[in-house]
């Protein structure tokens, strides 16, 4: 069996005395889409932030996070980016008064710093994936629509050429048509070879694009399996997929 790209084991996170994650174990294979679904407050963002090295300062972490078999324990966020993981946070965190293209270029800053001559080449790849960003390359990021902002956040993460992209609720607050477009883009991203760890409340759409899925409930993995199987699990249907 090949070693998974991301291996998380016995992950625990505490905010003060409160345990937000309890012994979480997940894996993502190279080039796979893996989704983590679950209700509000289950600990999904906490899990992504812990993996990315981006926990708030009152969060304490135990357990192992391996990327490509390298232990990331205690490693700073920018070193994790250099190792090939990139988080697109729920709040997108764009630079509103900067142009779209400059926001994208910031995503390749680490590669620029590392002396990579062709750090900006990836811009063409991103513009091919997101023609809308090419049209708006000179527009200030703060003037973009919600969907365009999510595209820019995704594009900026791709500028770092990650092996693993972690997406925190990419469909949050977007209109249904735009949500469809975002999930379509996620499928296209998979074709570029990047692995994706997708946290979503839109369980139906997430299970459609994912290879494997975990259900996180009150800080613990309650259920897991191939996404197509979980989509037919009666408990998942009743709790997360509703009647529609
Ligand atoms: P949502 O879908 O609503 O974003 P989530 O599944 O991503 O929820 P988290 O945001 O990870 O859940 O929160 C998990 C638990 O940890 C919640 O009870 C939350 O109130 C708590 N929590 C999150 N961040 C902090 C923090 N910085 N300090 C204290 N408690 C926190």
What is this structure, in a nutshell?
One of its GO terms (molecular function) is branched-chain amino acid transmembrane transporter activity. The chain is of the alpha/beta class and 244 residues long. It has eleven helices and ten strands.
Computed over alpha carbons, the radius of gyration is 18 Å
Dominant shape: globular
Overall number of strands: 10
Strand percent estimate? 25-35%
List its salient traits.
globular, 37% helix, 244 residues, alpha/beta, binds adenosine-5'-triphosphate, amino-acid transport, four-stranded antiparallel sheet, six-stranded mixed sheet
Describe the protein's architecture and organization.
- The chain has 244 residues and is an alpha/beta fold.
- 37% of the residues lie in helices and 27% in strands.
- The chain is built from 11 helices and 10 strands.
- The chain has helices at 44-52, 77-83, 100-107, 109-113, 122-129, 131-135, 146-158, 176-191, 203-209, 227-230, 234-241, and strands spanning 6-15, 18-28, 33-37, 59-67, 70-71, 85-88, 164-168, 195-200, 212-217, 220-226.
- Strands 6-7-8-3-9-10 form a 6-stranded mixed β-sheet, with helices on both faces. Strands 2-1-4-5 form a 4-stranded antiparallel β-sheet, with helices on one face.
- Helix 3 (100-107) packs parallel to helix 7.
- The longest helix is centred in the last third of the chain and has 16 residues, at 176-191.
- The radius of gyration is 18 Å and the shape is globular.
- Adenosine-5'-triphosphate is lined by residues 15, 20, 38, 40-46, 56, 58-59, 201.
- InterPro entries: AAA+_ATPase, ABC_transporter-like_ATP-bd, ABC_transporter-like_CS, BCAA_Transport_ATP-bd_LivF, P-loop_NTPase.
